[in-house]
Amino acid sequence: MIPTGSAVSSLGLTLVSSKSHKATKQQQRDRARRRAQRQEKVAVQRQAERKRTGQAVVVAVVALLVVAGIVLLSKVLGSTDDTTDASGSTDASGIVCTEPPAAPGTPATYELPDATEAEGRTYTAVVTTNCGDITVDLDGTDAPQSVASFLMLAEDGFYDDSPCHRLLASGNTVLQCGDPTGTGTGGPGYGYGVEYVPEDGSYPRGTLAMARTGDLEAGTGSQFFIVATDSVWPPSGGGYTIFGNVTSGMEIIDHIVDAGVTGGGADGSPAQPISILEIAVTEKKA
Fold it and tell me: Which of 199, 193, 196, 194 is nearest to 236 (CA)?
């Protein structure tokens, strides 16, 4: 029997429904396959990212270890070379020296102050230099004339901007200052004699003493020196008046001594220039 149209129609619907069901399963398989592919791709990407991250961490750790090693090595061994920057010069000691001012030139002429102005008194003086502060104690008991002279000149600004013109760097090692001309020939316009000289001729490191010419009676003026190493000058040669001692800042003197004399040698101007910028003095109270 030939099916009627409605039967054909019904059969046709059944056939269409069957094909749609088959297509849906195929699509699901395709989607599942694509999903698996995507998941695999994501997994590969994540694995690659983890690898790159791990490599970056390793590189960062290595870099930090290298930097830490360099810092530690530099602290242990210290710097072997002096360095210079815009603010001045420095070395492993940490001392920084700025550019010194020009020497003031010939100073005014003064009259010798009365020794009694400092007799029996003690003072602290802060000597500010272009390389830092040097603090000294002054004793007017044994050397009242030297202390009185130093006080007057410091308070009047005589020493301001004056260079320390001489470094004696062999044997008895000293740094000499106190001449505003920077030549080693300048002075305050007066002179006086030697006061206190140690009997054994011993001048320990840090001693503050007055320089002088060969005239023991009137060869002392404004120039003084700081002893960098334990030194000896026999009293038979006249000696040098001790009027104080350095209480802090000897590392600055060491820095100047280590730099040596200009052009080499053992006696001359310091290769590292140092100048007194100002001196502030206060009296110690009993």
Answer: 199
Note whether 157 and 17 are same-domain residues: no
Confirm whether 84 is domain-assigned.
no
Determine the straight-line distance between the first and last CA of the chain, rounded to whole angstroms.
143
pLDDT tens-place string over residues 223-259: 999 999 999 999 999 999 999 999 999 999 999 999 9
Q: Are residues 68 and 182 in the same domain?
A: no
**Euclidean distance between CA atoms 20 and 215, whole angstroms:** 128
Are residue 128 and residue 245 in the same domain, yes or no? Answer: yes
54 with 169, same domain: the answer is no
Q: How far is CA 196 from CA 113, 147, 212, in A?
A: 18, 11, 13
- Calpha distance 98→129 (Å, rounded): 9
Q: Are 268 and 167 in contact (CB under 8 A)?
A: yes
**Residue 129 dihedral angles phi and psi, to the nearest 5°:** -120, 170
- Give me the domain span that covers residue 67: 1-78
Burial readout 2-19 (b: 16 or more C-beta within 10 A, e: otherwise) = eeeeeeeeeeeeeeeeee
Residues 126 and 62 in one domain: no
Please check whether residues 48 and 106 belong to one and the same domain: no
Tens of pLDDT, residue by residue over 50-60, are 665 555 544 45
